[in-house]
Amino acid sequence: SKQAQLMEVLKKEVRAMLIAAKAGLTPEQLEEQYMAMVCKPLPLHDLGFQSTLELVTQMPEVVRICSKNGTLILKAIADDSTKGIAKLVANQKVKARKASKKAATKANAPFPTKNSKNPQSFQTLSAGTPVLPATVKAELQDLLSSSPLLLADLGRAFLRRFGRAFQYRQYGFLSVFEVLRSMADSIAVEQTKAGSLLVLRKYLARTIEQKEVPQACAAEMPPLEPICETDSFHQAAHLVGLEPVQTQAVDLGNHLEQVMHDETSECHLPFIPLQHQGSEQFPSTPEIPPDAVQDRRLCSLPPLKRRCLVGVIVEFVVSPSQFYIHICSTETSSKLQDLMFEMRHVYSHKVASDKYIMPESAVRPGQLCCVVVSTWWYRVIIHRVINDQEVEVFYADYGHLQTVQKSSLRFLKWHYLKLPAQAIPCSLAWVKPVEGTWSSAAILLFKHLCRFKEFVGIVDEYVDGVLYLFLCDTSTKEDVYFHSVLRDMGYADICGENIPSQEFEELNPSALYIQPSGKQGNAEVVEPDLCLQQDSQDADSEIANLKLDGAEL
C-alpha cells in the first residue's frame, strides 16, 4: 500500500537524521530537522498518527527512545547498511577540534590522479572551527547594532527580535563562547560588574568618534538615503541617541523632506506638512531612478585553480550533482555581510523603498533586482513570471530558486553590482548515482553531511561553468570524504572522471544570468553620471545635486 511504502521511506530518512545527531534529538528537534531537510512536515496524518512520539514508537527497529533529565531523546538504531556511518559519527571529537595544518603542508599535499584506485588515499586535510551562516552572523550584528547586550540576555533578545531560539549547536558549536570566538573580528566581549557584555566593534568605533565630534541636533542630520554611503546616517543617528523607527515624507516635486520620529529623543521635532503651490496630479508610475540597474548582470567569482585547497560552506543542496558553495575567507564573508547590512539600511526606509519600486514593464525574466525576506534584502534575478502577483527568482549569492510576491521586489542600486555573485555552482567530483538518478536517501545523506560546517574543498576542474570538487570533513578523528561515504553506503559509483551533471544541464541559473568574470566587458562597476541622465529634470532638484561626475563606486 501507499502507506507502507511511505513508512519505509520515512524510516530511512529518520534513521539518517538520528545517526547524524550524535547526542540524539528530541521529538521537537526531529520535526524541525525533517522540515529543514525535506521542506515539508513529517507525514503524521498521512500515516494515521497524532504525534511524532506516536510515530517513532512504531519504528522499534529504527528509533531507541531514551530519557535524560526528564527529556525524551530519540537515538538511531543502525542497520547493516548504516553501521559504518554511525561509527564515524561516534568518533567525532567533543572536547577538542583538529588544529589547522601548516600552509606548507597543504601546498605540498599530493593530489590524486584519475588513475588512482583508492580515492580515499588523499593527504589528510584539516579545516577550521564551525562557522555560522552569513545570515545568522548578520542577525547577531544587527541585534548588537543599537546597543551592547549582556551575554545572559542574548538568548531572550534573539528570540524576541527574530521569533526563534538561537540554536548554535545545530551549526556545530559546543557553546556560545565558541560562537563569539568565531566572530571576534566583529563582536567584542567586555567584563563588567553585571557580567560579560557583548559589544559590536563598529559600535565601539562610533563611541570613540562621538567623543571627538560635537553633539548634533536632528535637524542637522544628513539625508536619509545617501547615494553611496549609509554609515554617515547611522553614525549621526547614534550621535543624538536615537534609533530611526518611523519616517514621514512629503513629495515636493523633485524635493524630499523628511523628519525622523523617535519617542525617546530629546531632540524630537514635530512633523509639519508643507503645502504644494498649485497642486498637480502626479503620475501613478514614478520615473525609474537613474542609479537603478536595468540591463546589467552580476559577474561570477574568478575561477579557482586546479588542485587548490579551499575552505567552503555548502549553502544549498539539490543533490550531490547540484549544489552551491561559499568560499570561506574573512574578506568575502565580511563583504557579503556589509552588503546585506547596507541594503537593509537603505531599503528599509519607506522613502528609499518607494523610490525603487519596479513597474510592471520591468518585472521580466533575467532582470537583476532585490527582494525582501524577513526584513533582509537579497540580490536576485527574476527567473520566470508565474502570475500577476508572483515571480520565481534566483538568489545570486545563495544559489536557490524561490517564489516571491512581485510587491516585494525593488530595483537594485548600481552600487550593489560591484560584489560578484557569491554562490558557486558545484558537483561532487568522480561520482555518479548507482541507479541513474540520485535516490531520496542519497540526497538526504548528502544534505546531512553538508550541514553547517566548514569543509575542505579540493578543486578538480570546471565543466560547462560548474565546479567539480571533492569535499572532506576534517572534524572527526578520521577525515571523511563525501564521495567515499556515498560509495560505501551503496548510493554512488566512483567513476574516476567527471560526468556532466544532468541537473545542471536541465537548469543552471548561474549560467543563464551570471556573467563569467573573465568575460566581463567592463569589470569595474561605475555608477552612471546622474547629471547626464537627468537633463529633462529640474536642474535644482535634490537628485541632480547629488551627481557623482562619473566617480567609481
UniProtKB/TrEMBL annotation:
Polar residues bias (residue ranges): 113-124
UniProt-annotated stretches for the region Disordered: 99-124
Protein name listed in UniProt: Tudor domain-containing protein 5
Assigned keywords, A-Z: Cytoplasm, Developmental protein, Differentiation, Repeat, Spermatogenesis
Major location (coarse): cytoplasm
Species name: Sinosuthora webbiana
Any matching Pfam family: TUDOR
Gene that this sequence comes from: Tdrd5
Gene Ontology annotations for the cellular component aspect, listed alphabetically: cytoplasm
